[in-house]
Design a protein that fits this description.
The complex is a heterodimer of chains A (176) and B (457). Chain A is mainly α. In chain A, 69% of the residues lie in helices and 0% in strands. The longest helix of chain A has 32 residues. Chain A starts with a helix and ends with a helix. With 457 residues, chain B is α+β, with helices and mostly antiparallel strands. In chain B, the strands form five sheets. Chain B has a four-stranded antiparallel sheet with strand order 1-2-6-5, with no helix packed on it. A four-stranded antiparallel sheet of chain B has the order 4-3-7-8, with no helix packed on it. A four-stranded antiparallel sheet of chain B has the order 12-11-14-15, with no helix packed on it. The radius of gyration of chain B is 67 Å and the shape is rod-shaped. The chains are: A mainly alpha (176), B alpha+beta (457). Chains A and B meet through helix 2 and helix 5 of A and loops of B.
Chain lengths: 176, 457
């Protein structure tokens, strides 16, 4: 009986302490009023749509990234955090300066409003290549232009997902 | 002793150090004060395309800013810090690297040494661009002034919501400014709230509202306008004045015409007088002369020769008879008494004068075939007089009571007068009714018709 009590006393509490961070959110959402999003981030999202208006030759299949990461309930902040970090990878692409500036505003502004912990920030983000592992072999075979086209399609889809998730957060905030 | 001296020396040094750090001065000597490096900044977003402007300056104009520089950190895109540029005493930076979310830190540095820092949010120190193109249009029909102006923020993406302050005053009243706040770029000023025939000056400035906050912009260039002169109480438009004068004269002319033509023309049409039989008869009949005696006494007719008419005789015989027996003319009044019957100069009194008495006695003989009672009706009025010799030459000729003999039924009657040419036809069915027939002359007609009433009137 004494061995059993020791197990419960010294075994379970540490387990709780370890599991607690996993269950809790790592981000402290600061832009719940929606002012920063509507007056800054949404302006950049609209400009990005305008700049990419003519390019609509994208495939309908959803990349694997979105199968892994989605704006589910109680996971909006996590998704936005992941998506915002993903946007940073596109800054290395050879794109127009104005386009790049708006990408930075969306990415950095989202991260600043989420104010996620350091642990989440240090988490390794999948690179563009790992997003669609099944397509690695295909990317080698296709031309550079096609590859760029695919990346741009993925980028526009990512921006659309970010916009939708933001609206979901703010509409949920207004209801409360 | 050595230890004591050392201790005193240390105390003395400490005292000096402490007094030096606290700024204590003896004998009036003052050490140099730390300069005031406080500064203020304002931002202007999208001032040049997508580029933003941040301007800072020291509040103390006496600061020696020769080796000083400004630096901004945090709140930037993909960059940790940015250095300001300097133009005379103003420090500025023009970039599109502002995140516009969260605070930034602006520091004054001397070399690498930080002199002072301030934390401020770029979106909370926004100074809009000054409005321009202010205009005032007077609307006469609405009696108001429409003020319009323009601002470059209408085409911007970030700072779009502004509050505008329109200020106006009379030029002779320097400090008496009126202020109106509005969010649109159009304002209406009522004419009755302004002084008439006065010169006004108007200008406008803006301040951001909502997410973006900051300071008032510079005033726009002023616009000057003059209010119209007041309209006098008796002053009227020229067209209205002419129309009113013409109307007055027209009404006056109509009134005068109405007064002049009232009796002769207007009143008979509006209020026609009804015919009066008595008056009409008086007009038709002539005024009887004086000394007109009327009597039913047969003795008064002794002068008249009365001839009994037994039948219709031939014209020639009658004419001859009349010429022999009636040399003297008859009076006119007798004609009138017959109600239009005229007795010619050759009127046989015998035929004409019928007294009621005589008539009653001879009624069965004198009447046409018919009723005696009807024939008893005196045909001729009792207005017969001894003056029956005189005949009305101007009056109508009437056969009143044709006395026929018993053998003269359904016969045409020939008038006994030479100037009477009409033939009378009697209807035997008309019992005792004596017909008044026109004798046909150039004299006036005997018949009285409705039309004569109107003519006599």
């Amino acid at each position: 009986m004494v061995h059993v009590s020791f197990r419960y006393i010294f075994g379970i509490p540490p387990l709780i302490l370890v599991l607690l961070p996993v269950a809790s959110s790592d981000c402290e959402f600061e832009g719940k009023s929606g002012e920063e999003y509507q007056n800054v981030i949404m302006v950049s999202l609209n400009d990005l749509d305008r700049l990419r208006e003519n390019d609509s030759n994208c495939l309908n299949n959803e990349p694997n990234f979105f199968k892994k990461h989605s704006c589910d309930d109680d996971k909006e902040a996590t998704f936005l955090n992941t998506a915002a970090r993903k946007l940073k990878q596109f800054l290395r692409m050879n794109i127009h300066e104005e386009f790049k500036t708006h990408l930075q505003i969306v990415s950095q502004g989202t991260l600043q409003l989420l104010n996620c912990t350091k642990k989440v920030k240090e988490k390794k983000q999948p690179s563009l290549g790992e997003v669609q592992p099944t397509k690695n072999l295909e990317e080698k075979k296709s031309s550079k232009g096609q590859r760029k086209q695919d990346e741009m399609c993925f980028l526009m889809l990512l921006l659309e997902k970010i916009k939708t998730c933001w609206n979901k957060i703010l509409s949920g905030t207004k209801e409360h | 002793m050595t230890i004591l001296g050392t201790a005193l020396g240390i105390v003395f040094c400490l005292l000096r150090a402490v007094s030096g750090e606290s700024g204590y001065a003896q004998n009036g000597d003052l050490e140099d004060a730390e300069p005031d490096y406080s500064f203020s900044c304002y931002s202007q977003l999208e001032v040049s395309g997508s580029q933003h402007l941040l301007r800072c300056a020291f509040e103390d104009p006496d600061v020696n800013s020769t080796h000083l520089r400004f630096e901004i950190c945090e709140g930037l895109l993909d960059i940790k810090c940015l250095n300001f540029s300097k133009l005379q005493e103003i420090y500025f930076i023009k970039t599109n690297k502002f995140l516009l979310i969260g605070d930034s830190k602006i520091c004054v540095k001397l070399g690498q040494r930080i002199l002072t820092c301030r934390k401020m949010n770029i979106v909370h120190i926004v100074k809009p661009e000054a409005p321009f193109d202010i205009r005032v249009i007077y609307r006469e029909e609405a009696n108001d002034f429409v003020v319009t102006f323009n601002t470059s923020h209408l085409q911007k993406k970030y700072v779009k919501n502004l509050i505008h302050d329109v200020a106006y005053h009379q030029e002779k009243h320097e400090d008496d400014w009126m202020h109106v706040n509005l969010s649109s770029t159009t304002l209406t000023l009522l004419q009755r709230k302004l002084q008439p025939d006065a010169m006004y000056e108007i200008k406008v400035r803006s301040i951001p509202t909502g997410y973006y906050k900051g300071f008032w912009s510079e005033w726009s260039p002023s616009f000057h306008f003059r209010t119209p002169e007041p309209k006098g109480p008796g002053k009227m438009e020229p067209v209205l004045l002419i129309v009113s004068i013409l109307s007055f004269f027209s009404v006056a002319v109509m009134v005068i015409l109405a007064c002049v033509l009232w009796k002769k023309r207007i009143k008979p049409i509006i209020w026609p007088s009804l015919p009066d039989h008595k008056k009409t008869l008086e007009q038709l009949c002539k005024k009887p002369k004086k000394n007109l005696t009327v009597s039913f006494n047969p003795e008064s007719f002794l002068d008249c020769q009365i001839h009994k008419v037994d039948g219709i005789q031939a014209r020639d015989e009658v004419e001859g008879f009349l010429q022999d027996t009636f040399p003297a003319p008859l009076e006119e009044s007798e004609n009138q008494r017959f109600g239009g019957s005229v007795q010619g100069p050759n009127w046989p009194s015998k035929h004409a004068v019928i007294t009621p008495k005589t008539f009653r006695r001879d009624a069965p003989l004198r009447c046409l075939a018919g009723n005696g009672s009807v024939c008893g009706t005196p045909v001729l009025p009792s207005s017969r007089s001894p003056d029956c010799r005189e005949g009305g030459k101007n009056g109508p000729h009437v056969y009143q009571g044709l006395l026929l003999g018993p053998g003269t039924t359904n016969a045409t009657l020939h008038p006994p007068f030479p100037f009477q040419s009409e033939i009378l036809t009697l209807n035997p069915a008309a019992q005792g009714q004596l017909l008044l027939t026109p004798l046909g002359s150039n004299q006036e007609e005997a018949y009285v018709t409705m039309s004569s009433f109107y003519q006599n009137q």
